[in-house]
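Protocol check, entry for the methods section draft. Step 1: assemble the input record (protein sequence plus ligand SMILES). Step 2: submit for complex structure prediction. Step 3: store the structure tokens unaltered in the notebook. Ligand used here: zinc ion. Step 1 record:
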Amino acid sequence: VTTPNPRTEFRPDLVVDLASELVRIPSANPPGDVTDIATFVRDDMACAGFEVEWIEPAPGRINLIATVEGGKPGPHIVMNAHLDAFPVENPESWSFDPYSGAVENGRLLGRGANDMKAGLAAFVRIYQHHAAKRENMAGKLTLMLVCDEETYGPNGSLWLVDKRPDLIGDLLLSTEPSGMGLMRTAERGMIWFRASFAGKGGHGAHPVREWNVLERTRKFMDALEEEIRSAKIEAAHFLVPVEEEESYDEAVGPGAMAHIRKVSANFGRLDAGVKVNMQPASSVLEVDMRIPPGLVSAEILERVKLLAQKFEGDIEVLNFMEPNITPSSHPVVVRFQEEVTRTAGVKPVCGPAPGCSDARLWRHRGVPAIGFGPFPHAMGGTDEYCDVKELEITARVHHAIVDAILFRGEEGLL
Ligand SMILES: [Zn+2]
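Step 3, stored output:
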């Protein structure tokens, strides 16, 4: 284990070294067992002189917690990162070893490089550096490293915010990938559901005795798309201001703003029928809907259920969350934005990323939550990498924010 002395100057280049080592330890989810990487991080923390709490709600589903309290009272900052990563679907299609961890041409290479072993490494070193000076700290700092994030599973952050209210704190920092041009201060809500349609089936060449289930499924899909098109969204004031829309597209990708403003539905799976010359007796459709801030997921779900009834279908909810926001006018968001501008040389837009993250759990509890990390180059895809400069900026910015609040006593931010 190559551990820098946390009592010396904070070194972003050493964050990159740690990130390399973390990429070399697979922690794919599914299956979601994070024992190897959790053991490595626990040992690294021990080398730096810090104990961690090992919380394992299910075998191999491990969360690591370290908390340090300063000499004086003050706010509680929680730094959250996840230990798990997406699996590697097809290693042959990669142009390098998916668990390489090498740094080449300013890029850290491998699965999880940007989501989010880079950010994980940043928080570990930031914690070690600040915790070593605890006498001068006014407040409390928690490092929360979780499992189960990639599947929104029950054993990671969800388990912790439920069972350990002492870990919620006053500010949640996340290093989820965003890119330098975006601060993640909001998220769309989510409804994953399964719609089932059942009938009696029959011989395909005979007259249809009832409303064909596949036909009903298709009509339901059409009706759902129509419902989405007609949804009235008053999200403008929560989302990116009109004058910053272009910057948002530059930061996230072409067409991102238009996409994020809408309810979206992805028809992910459809199972129906047995044989070409039989009328199917059942049909099962799985849909992933995303709900922008300004709408209420629960209301959308009611409408989906009514639609399903119309086509004699049943809805089973697989995953559900409401949209969430930390206002971009919040003093700590404004301060963070200034820090990024100073460090990265660009003023980031505040808004939602296309996907969700554990930060939602804090916003739902009224705690401001900011996500800022390297750009998600090929996140979850082939040839994932992380820009090393962006990782260093990420580390500097989060380090400076913790320093400002817990050590420099900057007031009025929380
Ligand atoms: Zn992530």
